[in-house]
Amino acid sequence: MAQSEYVTLSVSDGSSMRAYVSRPASGPRAGLIVFQEAFGVNSHIRDVTDRFAKEGYLCISPELFHRTAPGLEAGYTNFGEVMPHMQAITNDGLEADIRAAHAWLKQSGQTKISAVGYCMGGRTACLAAMIVPLACSISYYGGGIGPSPMFPSLIDRIKDIGAPMLFFWGGLDQHIGPDAVKAVNDALRAAKKTWINAEFSFADHGFFCDARASYNAEAATEAWALTQTFLSTHSA
Questions:
Q1: Domain boundaries of the chain, sorted by first residue
Q2: C-alpha closest to that of 67 among 94, 45, 98, 34
């Protein structure tokens, strides 16, 4: 049974960031940063964080909107509520948040730390692999890694990725088209990175989230199994 609590982290820009922590019942096998969707560290993200803790990981899920909307939990149909906070996010701010969460796990005794993220958090998990030492990183349908109207592309920084990566995409995703996915894969190949690309042709954006209308049980089950194998392989 996982044990959970909230902690408050000091970020290098002077801000304070609340984070949800979930601990495994026995000594953790490794550390894991779980990056939120655009809708906050809500009940679904907390549940996913707990699921990872039950697999033996010491998990922390930082609230990435802490500068503009601390504690925000928005409904999945209320995109208008989260849009201003997504637009306020900067790479510099995200990098400071990533470093703070990574440092907390390190100070908690974890020598192997990985990251996983969903939607907006999928992009953040990729960014994390560029700036802090990770055992591996997993990005679920991360918009803004490739060309995107929402976030500055990370394509030019793919060369800085320092850990094996696993990418999940939905073939029916209207938010992240095949051109964006191709751009990410082309950049990874050109930079000679180590990565796995998993596209579920029958799944939409957000397919892993069982609180969203786009949830796809088959894709979610298979993605979870691959995620566990990937983490075990690189965190052992």
A1: 3-235
A2: 94
